[in-house]
Structures are given as C-alpha cells and as structure tokens.
Amino acid sequence: MIEPDLETVEPDLEPVGPDLEIEVEQRLLAVFDFDGTITRHDSFVPFLKFAFGQRAFSVRMARLVLPSIGYLAKRVTRDELKGRLIKAFLSGVEVQWLQQKAEAFCQSHWNRLMRPAALESIAAEIEKGAIVTLCSASPAMVLQPFADRLKVELIGTNLEVIDGKLTGLIEGSNCRCDSKVARLESVYGPLTQFRVRAWGDTRGDHELLAAAQDAHWRLFHPTWRRGRYKGPVNAKLHNPDGKDGPTR
C-alpha cells in the first residue's frame, strides 16, 4: 500500500556564494566610421566629381556657393547643406547608373583613399569573429562596393528612390551623431548585448564613441592630424590626446 505522506527527497544543492561571478562572453560589434577614419579624406565629393566629370561637377557646385556661405555664417545647418548637395547632383539619376559609378570609383580610388593601418585593423576584427560594420553619413549606395570589398556590413545615409530613380532626397535622417547609434540599434538591437568597439574622427562620431566599451579617436591619422578629443567623457576612450596610434 502506498503511504500518503511520503516526502519527496530533493538533492542537496551547494549555495552560490555572493562573490562568485559568472561571466557571459559578449559578442563583439566593431563599428568603423568611413570618411576620414579609414580613408585619408572625404569620399563623397570626390565621387561626385568622378561620376559627373569636371565640367558638370563645376556647374552643379556653383549652385551651392550661396548655401555654403550660409553654412559658414551658421544660417544653414550641415544637414541642410548636404541635402542641397544631394539634390543638386542626384535628382532624377537612375539607381543603376549610380551603382555602376560607385563600383568604378571604388576600383579606381581604393589605393589612394584607404588607410593601410585601418585595413589591417578591420581584418583583425574579422579574424576575432566580430560583427564588423561601416557606419557612415555618406550615402550607402556609394559606399556599398567598399563594404563588399572589405567583406563587412554597411549602415549609411539612405537615398530616396522612386521607380528606379533617385528623388534627390534623403530617406530618413543623415547618419551622423545620435542617428548613428539609433541606426545601429535598429539593425542589431540594443547595443548593451554587445561589446562595442568603435573608431571615429569627427564631431559626427562622438555619440558612437560614447556608446562603445572600446572607443578609438583618429587612431589611423598621421600624428600631426590627430588632435585632442573634445566629445563626451568616455573612460574607455583610447587616444583622447591624439598621441598614440600608428605613425603612417
């Protein structure tokens, strides 16, 4: 006969001490700004000159003289000036044409644009198993061939397309400052689930660097161009005084 008051015997469990730490390895997310960080200078304006030719480039740039003066006088914002640049050059342009020009630009300008030390760093992050992404204010459509060649992901400023043609407008926001962090989280989810390593070189990268556990300021620049970081305080920022890093 089964006894009704049988007790279930539970195995003894050793208590976990308060000083016992269980480390969960976070996945690496390595984020590189493009223009000026892994390249020697801006790429978008040189791309426009390459794509349209000197004469058409000069004609369109002439339309931007007054907005540029307004920008210098602080009456026009950086985003507004960029919007006018895109509208002046890319309104009505076929996407396929732009993609072909972007591919040709990547092939012809790779060696003169890319910083060797930056390429080595990107390759090292890939070797570590990190998710590696470019995060740039430049149009993603222009940078896609560079991302493909580097074998990394890409987040950039999106251009509005209707019926296979560019409207000359930005879709969403210009991918700089707070928008860089927002775009990263829209793709990868909360950044707190990653160990974020970031590289940047301008004011537009400050928020990205502040969100990273390992942040690098102008690491690949020549010594005389590094300068001092003046963004939000980040105890994990490397090279804040601009003194360390590769000499090339």
TrEMBL record:
- Where does this protein come from, organism-wise? Pseudomonas amygdali pv. photiniae
Q: Name one GO biological process term.
A: L-serine biosynthetic process
* Domain of life of the source: Bacteria
Q: Which InterPro entries match?
A: HAD-like_SerB, HAD-like_sf, HAD_hydro_SerB1, HAD_sf
Recorded GO molecular functions are:
L-phosphoserine phosphatase activity; magnesium ion binding
NCBIfam families attached to this UniProt entry = HAD-SF-IB, HAD-SF-IB-hyp1
User: Which Pfam families does this entry report, sorted A to Z?
Assistant: HAD (PF12710)
The UniProt keyword set, sorted, is:
Hydrolase
Question: Mind telling me what this protein is named?
Answer: HAD family hydrolase
SUPFAM superfamilies according to UniProt? HAD-like (SSF56784)
This protein's GO CC annotations: cytoplasm
